[in-house]
Batch of 2 targets.
Target 1
Amino acid sequence: MTAFGTAAGRPLQGRGGSPGFRFTLYGAVAVVIMYLDQRAHYLEPLRYALQAAAYPIQLAVNSPPAAWRWIRESFQSRDALRAENEALRRRQRDLELMTMRYEALAHENGELRGLRAALPPVADRWLPAEIINIQLSGLRQRLLINRGASNGVFKGQAVLDDRGLIGQTTHVGPWSAEVILITDPEHAVPVRLERTGLRTIAVGGGDGSSLALPYLPANADIRRDDLLLTSGLGGVFPDGYPVARVSEVHRDAVQPLAQVRAIALSHINSDAEVMLVWFRPGHPAAPAATASSAADVKNGNAAMQPLAASPRAPAARSSAPASPTPAPGKAAEEAAPPDDGPAAAAPAAERGDSPTPPAERPAEPSPPRQPP
Amino acid sequence: MTVGQVRGRMALTALVALILTVLPLPVWLDVFRPAFLVLTVLYWSINTPRAGGIGLGFLCGLLLDIFQGRVLGEHALALALIAYIAVREHQRIRSKPAFQQSLLVFAALVFYEFVVFAIDGWTGHPATSPLRWVHCLTGALVWPPAAAMLSYGESRYT
């Protein structure tokens, strides 16, 4: 422990000033960097370059698990491979059966809405990305994926897997991007209930698989096993992608709000690959990407604000008739929280009796949700 | 050992510590992962106070910010701060037996985590889980073997 014994007795001055001076210097630099990064967003190019520099280390760190996976895969027995093949074939058959009537249904849907032709699917193209690194703790739930700006990935892009929503990109480097998961405590995703059309916001629960719905009134019509879909508000995720399934609903007599938890449908722990999705611009169900560009940048991404919805919203919603079948269009219209008023109110006139209210929302920018 | 040699060892050990810090671990184990990079910075600040522990702390902190996607400068400030304290008090810390050193390291880690916690709060990313403090304890436990490992081979050069 007594290394460098000869230097111990000497005074510290000599190289590069006293420790106090050096600390003041570095501390000031750190504070300035923090200010620039947090408030002014001047450091995106620096972050981009540093992320590029960090990429080799991240790849190296990931290599032992990747090598282990490769070894395990290449020594898989013939029987296991056959079983997997069989399962995949069965799954493909099921999926084909499910999509057999897709064309007809899409056409019929278009006719019902008075469109001349069926709309093309909202997802324009997608790109599989490999997970390089996973940070899962109670505080942060992030992924690092091996696609970046050189593949056309942009900040705030939706990331899915084959079962549901995973998250969105936060920092994009040239060959890698960081993804914040929907289960991160700092992430909030606007959702609607598939059964009733009730809209609310799902905040990450922080334990790797659960989400909380903290803004629902105690008398909201929500049950166990209700499916949550993206609502299309917020400007990041398009409408109608599965997010989570409600796992528990507590209604406490003294609490004005219901305590609802949901389990994310995506399997982040077992995935090795995720999908980056580009959406067709101008499609009615596409997220209004422009909404989150100019006005939002100063205050960060609205979809990531921890206090995304104003607490007043559920109170106004509590009077909504949450009956599922008779007039879902009306129910959803009234259930719209007041802070997305302009977007929800404008198309209300022509929406009137439509059976699928949120899907036909025109692509006008939804207002960014500000923290109260 | 010349300052150049010390700097080389610093960079090497910091790289190893960084890899240990970002190595993917299962969730339950991740809570207990000691802050290896912080321990490394502390070690060099205490044992070679003239070789630039504060600058090392700043650079390592910047790397941590990049790897963890935090606000740039957050860990840099916290690490520069505890490196400064360690450099100032290096003679007192160095003369203590291992157990007392561990206690001091524990205090330093708690202080470091508190600074990060405070900056987290100010920048609008509050994470108030008590689990974030667990690594201070494991870091203090790991300190004696880690310091012994970092000083390995030093006597050959001095």
Note: Residues 1-14, 290-298, 309-372 of chain A have pLDDT under 50 and may be disordered.
Target 2
Amino acid sequence: MNYAQHVLTHLRKDLRLEWRTKDSINGMLFFALLVVVVLAMAFDPASYPTMTRQISGGLLCVAVLFAAMTALNQSWARETHNNVLDAHRLSAAPASALFVGKALANFLFVMAVEVVLAPIFTVFYNLHPLGETWKLLIILPLGTWALVVNGTFFAALSLRSRNRETLLPLVLLPISMPALLAMIQATTAVLTGEFEPILWIKVLVAYVIVFTTACVLLFQTILSAD
Amino acid sequence: MPKWALAYFGLTLVVMAYGFYAAMVAPKEATMGNLYRVFFYHLPHTILSFVFPYLNCGASFLYLYWRSRNVERAAAADAFALASAEITVLYASIGLATGMLWGRAAWGIWWAWDARMTTYLLLWLLYVSYLLVRRFSATGQTAVISAVLAIFAAIDVPICFMSIRWWRTQHPSAVFGGGDNSGIDPSMVPAVLWNMLAWAMWGGFLIGMRYAIERRRQRLSNAHALGFLGDEIPQAFQEAR
């Protein structure tokens, strides 16, 4: 098997697991919905359309990030049952294929949540975007991949630590701050139409390239950490 | 402590004292008066806290390289990475604190979300999270996990720096004025350089001390581990001391 086939096998396995339980997607969806409702308590989205346009890009990204974090821990916890992780270590397949497969699976789950969440956001927050909305089709996948690739990596990193649920956000949030900033700025640019998102898309592309490379190169080290 | 370390410590104190003297006799600044003298402490701490992370990153790379080749050197590299990360957090905390005090006195606000402060806060957050990971991770893996994280953090610092600059140039903040030390009077340069040297030496001393303490802790825990295997513990303890 070549590298792509290994990745595909891992991806198919993760998708099948998710299809049978639907734990991650259901959990994330409901959690993100709750975040949307809770944030609506913090300000009045219907009465201040301009302010809503300015901040709802950020709110959407933050809701997605928090929702993704609830699922990321679970995605590796599956591998620890019956010592599957040790089997992965012994396997002749490249370790990074396991990582890329899982990151792709997580990416698809989070994208699915966004596809449902974006219309809900538009309706609940009474949003009328003023920029070119098709650009969101570039921004959201890029930003999601940037968050998920690091998230999957750090979830694996904190897998065997004493309190992994606490550790993941503590590590992931500072590292992904530039990605989050770029994603929020680009989304806000599209929603308000006040400035061009192109600079922030470039930042996202650079971030994605740099950190995907770092994750793929260092995953072997993490997998055989002890 | 070996003799040369004591001598180095003494020399550092002398340079620090001279740096203090130079900072206090430097001419008064035109608009801020004596208030600006905090600058002589603020600048070295901030600059050095952007240097120490790269010592940390270098030590982490060395750790990962030596991990399967030379256990003793790997342990030393890990101890050095820990020491430099802790001193990074210490210096960044001092830089943040002096910056906030100065900002409060000069601009009337403790904190402005401008490019430099935000980047600096993120640097601080990154290395605090590094120390937390060291604290939380399982015993056998601390070194590997934190070495990987150190590399990620070091990659992240320049990206943070650039993206936050773009962010703040796009939305210029009106509150912010002055504070740009791009040009200082030549009469203040010696004070800056002496303090720079003093705090660099002090940072080096702290890292060295922390390194020695961590090496001793490693030897003691190895001695404990050996103690479970046989009766070598008294001898191992002796060596560790």
Note: Chain B touches chain A through 29 residues (CB under 8 Å).
